[in-house]
Amino acid sequence: MVSESTSERSFFAVSALLFAACAAVTIVWSTSMSAMREMEMPGGWTMSMMWMRMPGQTWLGAAASFLGMWIVMMVAMMLPSLVPMLRRYRQAVARTGETRLGWLTALVGVGYFFVWTVFGMAAFPLGAALAAVEMQQPALAHAVPMAVGVVVLIAGALQFTSWKAHHLACCRAVPGRGHPLPADIGTALRHGVRLGLHCSQCCANLMAVLLVIGIMDLRAMAVVAAAIAIERLAGERVARGVGVVVVAAGVILIARAASLG
């Protein structure tokens, strides 16, 4: 029988390997995308090729490519903040005497990242449609830098809301409220989906910042991932501190867009 300490070490080792692999793939993918020439747009900004089809590529192929990149990127970004939640789940299930913690933990992860996959499936058609409109309407494209600043400002303001505090608390809650959880497949998947729903709502404003600033920008990815992990570990007070920084960034972006007018 595998001891509890050995199981715990294996859990952290597998998590670290998965994170390293997905981070490496994300870096390679982002580097290859940044090497491609971005489209200059009215208003002094550039549009990422992420929202466009490559030559000879169908829209279905473009969507599949985006979704594959999105899933890998989400694993790299969210795993650091997910690991503590998975550990709490393992502790809750272990109270029942269950020994299949590895498989059940994996199922929680599947449910969790299924929610983020749906998020990506919604993001691509929206981003592609906006990109198409911006290429056809120069006046709209010219207003994008100001719109980006407004989105960042709103995202920062949401950090101070009770909505944010509620979902952040749900992400940090002890599974089963301190009681043992049933050790079955359905419970594991539902727990993962529930975590994913709370997390996606908790992080939606910060993910919006990433989407409008540059989804393939490695620096932006690292900053957003760090903010998500830190506020998940430290709680509401840190989330408000993140909000101050994001609001300030939004004000700066709006001021810069206004000066370029």
TrEMBL record:
Transmembrane segments: 58-80, 101-133, 139-158, 204-230, 242-259
Cell inner membrane found in the keyword field: no
Keywords (A to Z) from UniProt: Membrane, Transmembrane, Transmembrane helix
Protein name as catalogued: Metal-binding protein
Stretches of the chain forming a coiled coil according to its record: none
Top-level taxon in the UniProt lineage: Bacteria
